[in-house]
Every structure is written in structure tokens, then in C-alpha cells.
What we know:
- By secondary structure, the protein is an alpha+beta fold.
- The chain has helices at 76-84, 107-116, 175-182, 194-199, 230-243, 261-271; strands at residues 4-8, 12-17, 24-31, 38-42, 47-50, 56-58, 64-67, 70-72, 90-94, 118-124, 127-131, 134-138, 141-146, 151-159, 165-172, 188-190, 212-215, 218-219, 250-257, 280-284, 290-294.
- The chain has 2 domains: 4-123, Ribosomal Protein S5, domain 2, CATH 3.30.230; 127-294, lpxc deacetylase, domain 2 (lpxc deacetylase, domain 1).
- It is globular and about 55 Å long.
- The two termini are 13 Å apart.
Amino acid sequence: MRxxxxxxxxxxxxSGTGLHGGLPSFARILPAPPDTGIVFRRTDIGADIPxxxxxxxxxxxxxxxxxxxxxxxxxxxxxxALCGMEVDNAIVEVDGPELPILDGSALRVAEAIDxxxxxxxxxxxRFLWVYGKEKLHLNGSMVAVSQSEGLDILATVDFPGTLIGxxxxxxxxxxxxxxxxxxxxxxxxLREQIDALWAAGLARGGSLENAIVVEGDRVHNEEGLRFHDxxxxxxxxxxxxxxxxxxxxxxxxxxxxxxxxxxxxxxVEYLSGFDGPGHEAETSCTEGVxxxxxx
Length: 295
């Protein structure tokens, strides 16, 4: 991982539709000074919403942030692209309550960042290092954390009776590997879930242009799959986006079994349960896990 903080060399912009609200959405990512972090800016109401775990208010079907009474929804794909491409500081302007879903992946955002490039500052990044081992369980899902020299993820999903079935993938995060192996993976839904989502007022902007629809042993999308294991890759994409809410790059190994945004939120809350202003602030957590921040 790079040692010094980076931001975009210039702005990039995107337009599309919000996945759940179904409204047109325009977003622009702007460069930002060191130690800004990632901040979502609602240009329609003039409100800033820092991308931090403290500002997460919902994780039911997307990660939703709120600050000062303003909300921004479905932030995980943009955050995943920024984290995956090692962008530490940026202002993400959006003209409404939800980011555009684009094609349901992080590919267009990651490609845009790769195209314009990034600029390095003289301010060092603050890393979060995981030592020891710990497990978190939630409603049949589990994530285990342990030590690693980089950010390594082994994820599994299991959807019996469908084309998805059981899938697993081990992934080590670098900008190049993220762009090639994770960013193109699209969000997905089972056909039998769609009516319930619509009844709940969700997925109003969903279509075969921005989500994989699985019914039994087939997908409804004419183009088919981008990877045979696209589903577990998208779960890794979401996990990377939710880990970005820590506000610093992570060194650790994560075993994620049937992960989702709610479990990811619990994981990030656990990891951020300590914080220290010092260059080597260290704390003990449950069952011998140690976490360390270095600058």
C-alpha cells in the first residue's frame, strides 16, 4: 500500500439513476486536501456528510449516511472505488439523496479514477493494523479477522437452489487487482425478492441495466455474467466500500461468510471502537485482538 495520502488529479463526473429512489442523479468527485477523508456533499441542500461509521443510519439494502439532518444513500459502490483505487481524500458532490447506481458495479468510477490519475501529498496515511484473531456473528453470517501485511479478503456466499450456489474467492487489494477483478462485479437480486422490494418502496430504479436478476438456474440479463463467480466478487466490492468508512486503509485478513451491509457495519464499528491521536496508539479489544494505528 502507498505511504502518502492521495487525491484525484482532477474532477470526474457521473449521471444516472438512484437504485432505490429511482430518481435522476448527478455526481461529481472533486480533489480534496490531505486529511479531508471522503465527504459526500448534497449540492441540492448545501450539506456535507462525512463518510464515517458514526454517520451510518441504515444498512438494510444499502449503506445510508446521515449528518445534520441530511442523508445520502447507496454510497458503498463509490466508496469501494475510492478505497480500491487508494484515494484517501475527495469531495463527492451529488444533487439528490442517492448516488447513481450506474451499471450496478464500481467499474465506471474506478475506470474514471484510473484515467485521470491521482496526486500524492506529503502527508502520511494512517494505517489500521489488525493483530490477533476475532469473530463476529450475525443472523447466520460471520466475519473473522486476523493479521495480514495488506488487505486480504476470503469471502463465501451460498444461495442453494439457484445458479449462484456456493462461491468463494480470495482477494488481495491493490488498485490494479481491484480494477480488474472486483470493480466490474454487479449487484444482484433473486427474482422472487423483487416484488417485496417494490412493495417496500425500494429498487424503483432497478433494471437489467444495473443489476443481475437470478431466477432458479438462469440469469435474466442478456449479456450474462462478467465472471462465473460475479456474485461473491460483488460481496467483496461491498465489503471494501463499507471498510472505507473506517477513514483509513486497513492491514488485515478478513474471512467473510455470507457477508452483507449490516454485518459489515458491525465489523467496522468493532474495528473503530478504539481510536487514538498518537502515531502508535494501541488498545486491547475482546479475546486478545489488538489494533494499532500508525501514521
